[in-house]
Structures are given as structure tokens and as C-alpha cells.
Amino acid sequence: MLVYRDAVPPDPAEIERIFAANAWPPAWRDAVHPFHHFHTNTHEALGVAQGEAEVLFGGPGGEVLQVRAGDVVVVPAGVGHCNQSQSADLLIVGAYPAAAPRADLHRGEAQAHDAAVRAIAKVAVPAEDPVAGSGGPLAGLWGAKG
Fold this sequence. Notes:
The chain has helices spanning 12-21, 113-121, 138-142, and strands at 2-4, 26-30, 44-50, 52-57, 63-68, 72-75, 81-86, 91-95. It is of the alpha+beta class. The chain has a single domain, classed as Jelly Rolls (Sandwich). The strands form two sheets. The protein has a five-stranded antiparallel β-sheet.
């Protein structure tokens, strides 16, 4: 997971412009779901445009991270995330890599575990970093298989 602090202007349109310029088309404006979930078919960028939140990453035994306006979190496929609390004005811009399919949503059902692991292993590392573009750290840090 990559965490950028104060990386983008606290403005949804500017975050969308930055993500789009770096081949991560913006897909939604909202908050993080208040239940544990993950995506098996794509990575996700969360750009905090307004407010702040405490988000649990890594599933029920994971780590809570405080995010605030200007921060960006790049969540690898398969990493669970869950909104624990938020300010009343929270607004997040969500984006996925340009070549990604529509994001699926899984809640960690035991019977789907093996299929989820197989799907996550097939998700390619994006060519572009949503904040820094092709020169950003994402590809080098995530390696050939994310």
C-alpha cells in the first residue's frame, strides 16, 4: 500500500485531473464503505478531497490509518479496507487504473477465498502511479506482480 501525505490539492476536481493525467480515471466521489471489503480484480486510489477519516486497512486485524484532505492512499488488490469513523464533510475521489475492469467488491466470504486469491494474483502492477505518473514509485515498490 502507498500512502501519500499532502500530495494533492484538497479539491475534488483537481484530484480527478491529477488521477486522469496519470492514467487512473476517476470513478466515484463518496466515502469509504463502513464495512470490510476488498477488490480482487483491480487496485484502487483514494484521494481525500475534504475532511478526514480513520480507515482500517488489512482486514479486521489490520491497521487504522488517519487520512485527511490532500492525502492519497493506493490500495493493492486484495487489501481490505473499512471506514471506522469520518468527519461530516468527508469526500473521497476513488479511481482505478485505466485498463482495469469495473471494480468488484468482496467481503471475505470463506467459500470464495481460493478464487479470490487466484484472481488477485492475476492483477498487474499499473504502469502509472496515480499521483506521480510513470516516474512515480508505485511500479518499483510493488514489483512485477504487485
